[in-house]
Amino acid sequence: QLDKTQALSEQLGIVLMIAVFILYPGWAHGVFSVFACYHIDDGASGPFPERQRATWGWGYWIRDMNAQCYAGTHLSLYLPIGVVAFHLFCLAPPLVFYALLWCKRKQLSTLSTIQRFGFLFTRYRPKYFWWESVLMLQELSLVAVEVFGRALADVSQQILLMLAAFILISINMSCSPIKSHLITLLEFLSMAVLSLTLTLSLYFVVGEELDPGLVVRLAAMLSEVHVLQGLPLEEV
């Protein structure tokens, strides 16, 4: 019925919106990597601090470790591109989708609106019709933690990811915007498995080298958790 009721341009617009959802995490990752820097030497610690050369205070660009962050070409070329790309590819999509649904908020129950934009709001409760934009911002925050966390120690990065996952779980479970209890449960389990994976992986980066037997048991435990998450659930 969509071919009969919607013009080709409108159908292509729907395809474009769906493509934005698919590409959004990759866009965010690429944009944030423009601002991500890594500190190599501090000029004070280590056995030979006087021989350290990579001591630039702002660190070095992750995409080109020969380039100093916020200086030279990075400051004059890549940083302005990153600022524009952040507004265009990171902030604009969720804001545009929110504005689109807000303008249509009184026609959300009509057939034409459901056919065009139903994938944005039909799975949410009526008062949370805009929640898809919130999910995109949550996705953006996780990507930001993953990209900028590379400059931190392994443990600090994983703890930061765990904290972000816990905050998102708390927000989603407190609001419970999704109509289907099953989908809510699946989203909760997905974030819980992510947190558990990060927690167990701390064994591999903290302390001394692990016993091979313990490594096998931890790997088996992680595999079992992911398999259990994929088992079919019944609607409650």
From TrEMBL:
GO molecular function (one): ubiquitin binding
Transmembrane feature ranges: 12-36, 77-101, 128-149, 155-173, 185-206
Domain of life of the organism encoding this protein: Eukaryota
Keywords: Membrane, Transmembrane, Transmembrane helix
Any GO BP annotation: double-strand break repair via homologous recombination
Keyword Lipid metabolism: no
Record-given protein name: TRP C-terminal domain-containing protein
